[in-house]
Amino acid sequence: MKIGLFTSGYQRNPLEHAFEDAKRFGYDYIELWGGRPHAYAPDLKSGDIHMVKRLIEQYEMPVRVYTPEHNAYPFNFMIGTEQMRRDAIDYLKLAMEMGKEMGAEFTLMSPAHAGYLTSEPEIWHRLIVSMRELTDYAEKIKHKIILEALTQMESNVCTTANDLARVFSQIESDYLAGMCDIVPPFVQHESMLAYFYKLQNKMQHLHIVDSDGTSDTHVIPGEGVLPLKEFMQELKHIGYTGTATIELVTAYINEPRLYARRAISNLKALMECV
Description:
Layout: E1 2-6, H1 15-25, E2 29-34, H2 41-59, E3 63-68, H3 82-101, E4 106-109, H4 120-141, E5 144-147, H5 161-170, E6 176-181, H6 183-187, H7 194-199, E7 203-207, H8 228-238, E8 243-246, H9 256-272
Parallel strand pairs: 1-2, 1-8, 2-3, 3-4, 4-5, 5-6, 6-7, 7-8
């Protein structure tokens, strides 16, 4: 299993620090967060893609996953007017183009909140229309989308393994797959392992962190209440060999370099117990 460093927590540091640390600390790849000041898709298109490619080459550290920011201002394809949806879709198409250009295997998408007054049929229609258009574009440029379920604290759209499976039943494509951030199922009392059984070959990526058990906070592996050692044992049992990013977001933004080192050290120690 390949372990990745997520760059969101480095957004107050130069992006180069994330690549340097991934190399120093023994990560296998980068999951690149696409928000200013780092790797925002329009900025990449304007020339910053060359900086990212230089870092990949200099530190011999591939970007396996590109994760453009689109859960809040200004882009969220699940809320607002049709023009707002259109803007978000165009932005994500550009993100896929940039993800492919930097050599990423996936561009990651996670449908954000659709608004409190939006009905379930309206939510589902907008989700399927949007994901079908994005998947059609993924097929056109031959670059895969990974779809992520969020917690119910973050979204009212796609929050469970069943939701992901429902999307895949309506949009059949080799260029659309799924993943599990293990915090949402854990805090929602859903089975983390159910993702593997329900999604089967569509289950192609993980976000591995720990949890406080009550919120969507992402905690350093081994420092929360999630049964991570046993989860790693089950991953070995089922033969999972895909990617797994340690998704430290902003809880450790004051010292990302220190916590990125601790995070992979803790996770590797848990893996050695398997």
